[in-house]
Amino acid sequence: MTNPSLDAYQQVFGMAGLANRAGGYNGFGIQLQQQLQYDLSFYFNNVPPVKIMGQKAPSTADPSVLPVLGNWDLVWGPALIEEKNEKGVPTGVADNALYVAKCDAVAFPGGPTLPAYVVAIAATNPSSLYDWETEDFAVSEVVNWTTYNPSNFAPSAYNGNDPYISKGTATGVSILLGLESPNSAASPNTTLQQFLAGLHPEPGTAIIFCGHSLAGALSPTLALYLKENKDLNAFGVTLVYPTAGPTPGEAAFASLFNSKFPPLPPGWQQQSGTYQSWNTMHWNDLDVVPHAWPVSELEKIATIYGQATTNMTASILNTLQKMAIDDSSKSGASYTRIQNQSLPGQLQNSSSSSISIKTPPATLQDYMLQLSVQHVSMYNGIPATGPDPQVTGLILPQPLPKPDVVKLVPGVTAVTEFEMIMKIINQIIEWVFSHYTLVEKENANIEADK
């Protein structure tokens, strides 16, 4: 078979995006897991059949996928979790998700051709308030990495010497390590660590951890934990490909990660593409999310798309920026990115659903639509629609192939981009009120502006 059109970096990034598919649906946990498994059967071989969707046998990847993504098998999962809110009510969305795929021969640019496993972790689900509050935004408290036990941890005072991660990152890694592959999925009834312990990979086999957004923080942290726990000793090469991630920890943690995960294995040659570095967090410089949580970067987010043209929008954005800076600073730890590479973003006048976007933003919707485009579409590429020309993505030239018709598991409903944006806006306004009852002090006169 000829090599796929996407190089190894792009294949891995594409698989991280596939883990996010569950974020586009509403339903109960088991239904969402079946939907994700069914979706993955279009892209991978040997996905166990989802019987409720009429599948009788393990999948064969769609012919449109192989020339682009390559020939991959699903070997573990997918597993996901639907959390409960503070009242014990299920969230109705996938709050975290994870799967593992394998290819027998991956041609690494500047390196050898090796068997490879990819551990793909889902991004923040924009519909999940749990993700936002418990994982993404939980940065005011920190956890000492030297004593971190995923099954039993607590925040502690920052001592200025040891490496620390945010409480949110510690929570996310704990959740991922606790996920079990369901009975009807690949390698059923095992956790990721149990699955890895049962592998006997060929010499030199690579394992790659990847994820976008929230998973851009979780993937390097999970990889470092498993490496230090000696769970990855059977692999010849361990790599991470995080994208668009918020910062998981402070300076000592970043230094520790960088020392354990150099940008290239020994003897591999650096490539020319800005997206072509392993163990490096790649981020669009117009993407708000990777500006969290270094204070110097947070200071840019209110005006990253230009000064808002209405007092209401400017006030809300300034308040959000101040809240983020306050939370980032509270523990005394100085959040510091792991080794990283910025990619040049480009402001867009419409969303991927052809919704018009004003730049600079006139409303919070304009800001959030632009954020959505910059955080997702600009990495994947934007197909031409109507008068809008095609936009080449920062990592993928264009989105991966997809089925002509999306079939839904009974009980699952799809979420449109606009619905997702409106949920985010509502969650942000609720977050403002829950954190600052006297928002007027920041001139965020939300009631008057409604």
Automatic annotation (TrEMBL):
Gene3D superfamilies: alpha/beta hydrolase. It holds the Pfam family Lipase_3. Residues 191-293 form the Fungal lipase-type domain. InterPro entries: AB_hydrolase_fold, Fungal_lipase-type. This is Fungal lipase-type domain-containing protein.
